[in-house]
Amino acid sequence: MSNEEQFDVVIIGAGWYGLIAATTYIRLAPHTKLLILDNGRSIGGVWNKERIYPNLFAQVGHGLFEYSFYPMKKEGLTPDRYISGNTIHGYLNDFAKDYDLVRRIRLNTTVINIEKINGEMWRLDIKNADCVKTKKLIVASGVSSDPYTPSWPKEGFNKPVIHSAQ
Questions:
Q1: What is the pLDDT of residues 84-131, one digit of tens each?
Q2: Do residues 25 and 9 make contact, with C-beta atoms less than 8 angstroms apart?
Q3: CA 51 – CA 44 distance, rounded (Å)
Q4: How does strand 34-37 pair with strand 4-12?
Q5: How far is residue 166's CA from residue 155's CA, in Å, rounded to a whole number?
Q6: HSE on the CB side for 124, CA within 13 Å?
Q7: Distance of alpha carbon 133 from its chain centroid, rounded?
Q8: Distance CA 128, CA 126 (A)
């Protein structure tokens, strides 16, 4: 039998949604035993260090892409105020540090199966690691986590199909 860890809350995703979910939950219940899991090698979700490439900018202007109570530094902006990927990555990392989330985050952690047990607990099977059990589960993996390429008729189409996550 493998070892199991138990938590009050587990959040899947260390990007925008996962970080704010964790911060909000801890603010409301400070003594919560909370864990954030993410399959990336760094904090940030789609804005993690490994996904940032040169000249990547968000299609949102500075001041519109931040948590309302945590202003983003005015660094890495284009003249028309678009925000660089590095600035966003830094912002999310600073947020995680400033709100004491880093110690609660496990990176390089892939959830391969989720199961509800007796209507009371969630069991998360982790790739190459012991399972995790939790009373509450928040899936905050975002809409851009895994590439999805829809199927369509390809007759007469012989060009490569490339997803933005590749």
A1: 999 999 999 999 999 999 999 999 999 999 999 988 899 999 999 999
A2: yes
A3: 9
A4: parallel
A5: 24
A6: 25
A7: 19
A8: 6
